[in-house]
């Protein structure tokens, strides 16, 4: 359990409030797939904590079950401007709530990562959706990626 979760539980105990463990634990890494082709497991789940590593609690046929998750890579966002020259972290383990330790141009701070899913985007010339519907893969459901189109960006199935 990370320091953030411990602090929440300590405060809850001090004030006499019960905080269920599922509210303070982070979800398993990855995303739920859009479709699941295999036979659905017999055992159901309520939260990712009930699933093994590499699995997510996902709903298929109106039933929450543990299925293999879609792997993701967490990357630091691009540096737009230089930040303060302090070292607030030295590795991702120093960060909480799924954040990653990133350079800010002068020091290192915890930031919300950019999610990168596996696969390549299709040729943008064949996608005629205009407008920006996403900025990064993490905003797209299942295995879909945020891809450039002929006039913007949209969630697309990778090739």
TrEMBL record:
Residues 60-113, 114-159 form the WAP domain. It comes from the Eukaryota. One of its GO terms (cellular component) is extracellular space. Keywords: Signal. Residues 1-24 form the signal peptide. The keyword Signal applies. The keyword Cell division does not apply. InterPro entries: Elafin-like_sf, WAP_dom, WAP_four-disulfide_core. One of its GO terms (molecular function) is serine-type endopeptidase inhibitor activity. GO terms for biological process: antibacterial humoral response; innate immune response. This is WAP four-disulfide core domain 2.
